[in-house]
Amino acid sequence: MTGGKPFYITTPIYYVNDSPHLGHAYTSVACDALARFMRLDGFNVLFLTGTDEHGQKVAKSARDAGLAPLEFCDRVSQNFRAMTKLMDISNDQFIRTTEERHVKASQGIWQAIAGNKSPKGRDNIYLGKYAGWYAVRDEAFYGEDELIKDANGTRHAPSGAEVEWVEEPSYFFRLSDWQDGLLAYYDAHPDFIAPKSRRNEVVSFVKGGLNDLSVSRTSFDWGVPVPGNPKHVMYVWLDALTNYLTAVGYPDTKAAAYKTFWPADIHVVGKDIVRFHCVYWPAFLMAAGLEVPKRVFAHGWWTVEGHKMSKSLGNFVAPQQLVEQYGVDAVRYFMLRELPFGSDGDFSRRAVVGRINGDLANDFGNLAQRVLSMIQSYCGGKLPGPGALKAADETLLASARALLMKTRTEMAEPAFHRALETIWHVVGDANRYVDEQAPWTLRKTDTARLGTVLYTLAETIRHLAILAQPFVPQAAAKLLDQLSIPPGNRDFAVLATALIPGTVLPKPAGIFPRYVEAAAAP
Ligand code: ME8
User: What Cα–Cα distance (Å) separates residue 399 from each residue in 52, 392, 449, 463, 480?
Assistant: First the structure.
């Protein structure tokens, strides 16, 4: 663990019934950009991701695959671990809910909840019988009034998932007694749920009244046994949400990691799992006497070429295929730049190629390439020193120096698209400055001025490259190598320093290649 203020960020843990797809990669990349940004900004970051391995859905997928559940989980969890590597995700931990430490944490939170009384002085957990609808795909219980009937009269969950009627003995969590506590929490913490539209949805859902929640299942056994009654396994969402505590050492609340990182600073989730994170999770934590996370941010969903992504439609997008085709930085950049974080968006190949050839190759790539090439050919590869600065130089440098403050504000939301827009605004300024200053002419007319212009540009590119690291880590690293900035010296603190004239720069190489559609086979 390093020094600095702690910052604990999590992705949802991914169900192992699926193969990794675009949606999973998106949540991971968004969290990664924020985690990297905070690390570079001096925070002591804990970044968690992992896999959600219990429950009826996974048990069924394992059965369908002809494998024992754990064998199935071992196999698919590996695919998600590979996805994190592929997308250049800098997670500090990868948790699996089948790990012993997690079983211990889940049973620990159950016991803590059961050991406390509800605000109305009643048992938080009681034994009863569940009779109602359940959607295995969502791993969620639904009331009759929430279901939607299709043309044939078949009921579906609001997500479109099939539902089945379930009747079985079950423990219940007295969620109804936590309604006032939750509303008071939302009131006292206006930033707990973001964006605002999600917050409004949650508040009105809770105001509408809460039913007690079934928190154990008895019709299958793939889950964490309920303490004291192993005929029951814990409801998979109670087990899954607890992963955020497991990673910091819970139930040992004296563990250094727990004391440092709990409550989490931000859980980033998709909009489909807001209710679990913003209603059930804080209620479980309050009932257990634990602190509630500071923020839940719900991002939107991607469609693919205008359609919902699904295997049956044949438009399932695997991150592997994207990275092979476009490169990891380009995919990361596209996802974070293309749509406001929190909104839905469409993933189209045309849009990806547009961003690659426009923002990356033409704008940033070209700026770096022409400036570094001029330093090579006009100055023998040695960074020139600046002379007296003119207004145009001061303006460009001032806009580069203002980037840290601006992007900090945008990343606090987080608004990745705006942070990138802000950075690329300076890329645009720098490109215009090159055209206006025309160093190729200065080379013949005024070599002192040439030195100032190229130095101003190199210094601007240094700022851009340092700030681009969270988003396009590999390209930014290459660019910083080309500016001879040592790898250990690339955090935001170095923005306050400046390039040293006379530094020898290596031969430049392109950082953002253009995407050229492969010629169709004859
Ligand atoms: O929900 N666009 O896991 P999961 C954007 N195990 N995001 C998408 C998406 C899309 N098309 N499809 C899925 C679970 N996602 C639980 C979480 S946390 C304690 C337990 C996002 O594998 C989705 O919104 O079904 C969710 O945030 C994430 O992928 C994982 O989904």
Answer: 44, 11, 20, 10, 19
Kindly state the percentage of the chain with pLDDT values over 90.
95
With vertex at residue 217, the alpha carbon angle to CA 20 and CA 123, rounded to the nearest 5 degrees, is 120
CA of 301 to the centre of ligand 1 (A): 9
Please tell me the distance from the alpha carbon of residue 501 to that of residue 503, in angstroms, as a whole number. Answer: 6
- SS3 letters for 352-410? HHHHHHHHHHHHHHHHHHHHHHHHHHHHCCECCCCCCCCHHHHHHHHHHHCHHHHHHHH
- Quote the CA–CA distance of 450 and 154 in Å, as a whole number: 74
- Whole-number pLDDT of residue 1: 44
Listed residue (220, 213, 218, 261) closest to 237, CA to CA:
213
Nearest residue by C-alpha to atom 13 in ligand 1: 23
Instruction: Say how many Å lie between the CA of residue 50 and the centre of ligand 1.
Output: 12
User: What 3-state DSSP class applies to 256?
Assistant: helix
Question: What token pair was written down for 123?
Answer: 């048992």
Give the dihedral sign, CA 38/29/103/283.
positive
- Residue whose Cα lies nearest atom 23 of ligand 1: it is 270
pLDDT computed for residue 519 by the predictor: 60
Ligand 1 pocket mutation, candidates 136, 272, 331, criterion most atoms within 8 A of CB: 272
**Centre of ligand 1 from the C-alpha of residue 449, in Å:** 54
| CA distances, 263 to each of 199, 293, 294, 375 (Å) | 19, 5, 7, 49
Residues forming beta bridges with residue 1, ordered by sequence position = none
Is the peptide bond preceding residue 158 cis, with omega within 30 degrees of 0? Answer: no
Alpha carbons 474 and 232: distance in angstroms, whole number: 48
For residue 275, the model assigns a pLDDT of: 96
Quick check: 54 and 98 in contact, CB under 8 A?
yes
Neighbours of 253 (CB within 10 A): 16
Within a 10 A sphere around the Cβ of 6, how many other Cβ atoms?
A: 17
342-399 confidence digits (pLDDT tens): 999 999 999 999 999 999 999 999 999 999 999 999 999 999 999 999 999 999 999 9
Question: What is the CB < 6 Å shell around ligand 1?
Answer: 12-15, 18, 23-24, 26-27, 52, 240-241, 243, 269-270, 272-273, 301-302, 309
**Nearest protein Cα to ligand 1, atom 26:** 270
For 39, the token pair is 């690390």
Q: How far is the CA of 82 from the centre of ligand 1 (A)?
A: 17
Token representation of residue 478:
């290459």
Note the pLDDT tens digit of each residue in 383-412: 999 999 999 999 999 999 999 999 999 999
Residue pair 205/172 in contact (Cβ under 8 Å)? The answer is: no
